[in-house]
Amino acid sequence: MARTMLLPVLLSFLILPFSALALTQDFCVADLSCSDTPAGYPCKAAGSVSSGDFYYHGLAAAGNTTNLIKAAVTPAFVGQFPGVNGLGISGARLDIAVGGVVPLHTHPAASELLFVVEGTVLAGFITSSSNTVYTKTLYKGDIMVFPQGLLHYQYNGGASAAVALVAFSGPNPGLQITDYALFANNLPSAVVETVTFLDDAQVKKLKAVLGGSG
Questions:
Q1: Mean pLDDT calculated for residue range 105-123
Q2: Buried-most residue among 1, 50, 129, 138 (CB within 10 A)?
Q3: Global pTM?
């Protein structure tokens, strides 16, 4: 008798997650007047949603590459493109001038898929478990994937400007550039030297270049 009563209970627990999924709403356009949370932005009121929330023209123009790294990333994250809130996707445009580089960096909240539109891009990532390096020279029409959270880089390996479009598996992938994390803040030079094995002159030179102090 107990087994007979237990079976419907077990079935209800198995069905419940699928029922919850069936009840989810079509979309949740970000209300950018509120703060972002680990679960995303709160939804805009239905009456204030427009077709413009699902459209973004910001990737049409080239980014400004007249900077230290000679590269520019133009994001289409949830902060610029509120319609992607909750959808697990976002995008960006990458412009790299001749000699330009996107230094080692990570996206802690998303994997990345890069599609080369113009030029030549040398790219690679480093595994977390064995420090194995996977590199590839990418040409127009090529794509490469960079798994979530892994250190990776891109640089222009050709004689003309390179352009790539990027897709992410999250609406706000995050970005941490290793060089800036180490040398563009007020972490004391003595600490940086200890954790990187660099000497004092090298650390202070990099801090001066990247705007750090200490």
A1: 97
A2: 138
A3: 0.85
